[in-house]
Design goal:
Number of helices: 4
Number of strands: 7
Shape: elongated
Strand order of the largest sheet: 2-3-5
Distance between the termini: 113 Å
Largest sheet: 3 strands, antiparallel
CATH topology of one domain: Alpha-Beta Plaits
Order of helices and strands: HEHEEHEEHEE
Structural class: alpha+beta
Radius of gyration: 29 Å
């Protein structure tokens, strides 16, 4: 009979635990969900190499590549975004393909709901104009040291 009295008291008392919030609290060091802009991606795969949690997959193909992101695996460390920025700056670009949203992390109920995948054509890397000038100046020097078949040696 004690069990019936305990059940009755629990039903009358109501909730004894806190309800889960609609959105989790954001910690001060949360960097945000990774966002991909296919317009600026060159297909260098630096982001995949920098991703420690293997949330980014990069599959090269002939003339194209597939970039995939799984936020369920992501630790939101931001190493991929830093690598993308560094590589873009080295190549002479001011824009880069990856950014992070510092909003509240998304809530999803089914596995793979937030996964994104893009298949893009590979872009040729842009060469800075300053790098083309020394290469053109070095070309005549190479031509001067080529062997001359008429004399049997270098000029």
């Amino acid at each position: 009979m004690k069990i019936l009295r305990m059940i009755w008291q629990n039903l009358r008392r109501g909730y004894q635990t806190l309800l889960f919030p609609a959105r989790p609290k954001i910690t001060p060091r949360f960097r945000g969900l990774v966002k991909f802009d296919p317009e600026y991606c060159t297909g260098c795969a630096v982001c995949k190499m920098r991703c420690t949690s293997r949330a980014i997959e990069f599959k090269p193909g002939k003339g194209e590549f597939t970039w995939s992101y799984n936020p369920g695996q992501c630790t939101f460390c931001g190493r991929c975004v830093e690598g993308c920025m560094e590589h873009a700056l080295k190549a002479g670009h001011h824009e880069h393909a990856l950014t992070q949203e510092e909003d509240c992390p998304p809530v999803y109920t089914t596995l793979g709901e937030l996964n994104t995948s893009y298949t893009l054509a590979r872009k040729a890397p842009a060469k800075p104009a300053a790098a083309a000038t020394p290469a053109a100046a070095a070309a005549p020097a190479v031509a001067a040291t080529t062997p001359n078949p008429a004399t049997g040696g270098a000029q």
